[in-house]
Amino acid sequence: MLDSVVLSCSLLGLFLHVVEFTDGGITSSFVRSVDYSLDMPLNSDVFRPPPGYNAPQQVHITQGDHEGRGLIVSWVTPDSPGSNTVYYWVEGSKKKKYVEGIVLTYKYFRYTSGYIHHCTLKNLEFDTTYYYQLGLGDGNFSRTFTFTTPPSPGPDVPYTFGIIGDLGQTFDSNRTLAHYQKNPAKGQTLLFVGDLSYADNYPFHDNVRWDTWGRFTEGSAAYQPWIWTAGNHELDFAPHLGEHKPFIPYKSRYHVPFEASGSTSPLWYSIKRASAYIIVMSSYSAFGKYTPQYEWLEKEWAKVNRTQTPWLLVLMHCPLYNSYADTYMEGETMRVMYEPWFVEHKVDVVFAGHVHAYERSERASNIAYNITNGLCDPIKDESAPIYVTIGDGGNLEGLVTEMTEPQPTYSAYREASFGHGIFDIKNRTHAFFSWHRNEDGYAIVADSKWLLNRFWKPSEVPPLASA
Ligand SMILES: [Fe+2]
Hints:
Oligomer: single chain
Bound molecules: fe (ii) ion
Organism: Kalanchoe fedtschenkoi (Lavender scallops)
Strand content: 25-35%
EC number: 3.1.3.2
Radius of gyration: 22 Å
Low-confidence stretches: 1-22, 463-467
InterPro entries: Calcineurin-like_PHP, FN3_dom, Metallo-depent_PP-like, MPP_PAP, PAPs-like, PAPs_C, PAPs_N, Purple_acid_Pase-like_N
Keywords: Glycoprotein, Hydrolase, Iron, Metal-binding, Signal, Zinc
Shape: globular
């Protein structure tokens, strides 16, 4: 009996240690280890090139069309152009198909890239596992990988997305990626919310760090699509180095299917994947009225069919709601422009990065304000998205820990720890979002929320009993 009382008191103490209640939601007082985020040295095993002369490296895949039957395969050959061909076949079949891609190089200040290949596989079967082979014809140094296409878009198709942002290439980045890969929730596609390599933090934006990042992420990105969003660290805008055009390394290395959604830029586009419709926006491109991004998004809403793809997700880099002190209000201009559309069209979740910490909002909106009416506080709004800030991948700039106090009422949970998210769609009405901090075991959920689809379950009903 005494033991159980002691245990109960201990658990209560632990609980009180972990959370404290403020005016808003929960601000976790979990204290992570104090190790500073250091980039992994260049000779780290995760950066090691594959063996063999000119072997394909930095392999990554992303969706290659609007529906999910296309796949863009990208890779780098360091020494010579080599083969541009991707051979691919259905698991268990001996019948190989092949398709020819393109190759390009770019220069950045004194850096010249390797040979960057992009190849689009089209008309793949839905829900099918394929193998693909690169480098055939270049001697014996070909490499083979595998991927699985999504199910055909449909309202009750279960599908699991991982979410990572601001990853960089530190020891913490390595932990984040390893935890994502080992999470038993098994993300099938990764939604990456911007800020990839952080090469621009090096003298002269050392683009060698783009190459190391490509090799570091290959272990996941060669086997499941990473859906790319551009962040501020993709700008690489450096007039003092003679680099006057933004996004050159990023746009050279990471191709996306923007034309399939009628976009005129790879920085904003949309895809359907299983039961989700995903809109990718660019925080660092013009987005005011009459700009190409605005005009594209204005037409985009009518294309979303919630009967086919019930879950409407938006990815962007800079969050619209953020109660950390760092980057405070940076997303405000975009919020003023686009939040009314998000509410009107019942976006389910907006995922963003940029802030190196984690935060999840309540369903709230701040669209009533018109400068003169004084209605400038966010209010509870069942048509509004949940905003998830998840720029806690682990880059060399470290965590943001300073928060605005008191916690705003729209903020449901916030914590300054590195980690990743999982968005697990069960059917047209229910999805389970979880956030996993790196300090915990692979299967442990640090924060979670059952989400009711805004189109199919616009009013609150009791959530399912468990995940
Ligand atoms: Fe950022």
